[in-house]
Design a protein that fits this description.
single chain; mainly alpha; Helix Hairpins; 3 helices; 79% helix
Length: 126
């Protein structure tokens, strides 16, 4: 529905622009109720020229826009591939850190037991 409303709005803006532009260029005398033959001819030519130019511009725009869309799509795909590669690299680093931590934990010797008092005492002289 929003798309249709936007199309109607665009059409009305274009219609108002054409009307304003052609009226200002073609109508010289506001004292008569009817348009003169010259004013009618001028208005017809004005509208015809405007619509022809508008159609040509739209054709060019459509061609250029498809190229722009293809470039944007390629850029988005490149960015996504870069993000995936970075995520994989971070995951590998985390895996390596976890493996290193596990290896370090396995390599740490058990804490030595405290020596008993009989082993640490000096021999007595008899």
């Amino acid at each position: 529905m929003d798309y249709e409303l936007r199309n109607i709005k665009d059409f009305l803006q274009l219609y108002n622009k054409i009307t304003d532009m052609c009226f200002n260029s073609c109508v010289d005398n506001l004292f008569g109720r009817d348009l003169t033959r010259e004013e009618v001819s001028c208005a017809d030519n004005c509208v015809l020229k405007f619509t022809n130019v508008n159609q040509r511009l739209l054709k060019v725009y459509v061609g250029v826009q498809s190229d722009i869309n293809q470039r944007r799509l390629a850029e988005v795909e490149t960015q996504q591939a870069k993000m995936v590669a970075e995520a994989q690299q971070q995951q590998q680093q985390q895996d390596q850190q976890a493996a290193a931590a596990a290896a370090a934990a396995a390599a740490v010797p058990a804490t030595p037991e405290v020596a008993t008092a009989s082993n640490s005492a000096e021999p007595s002289v008899a």
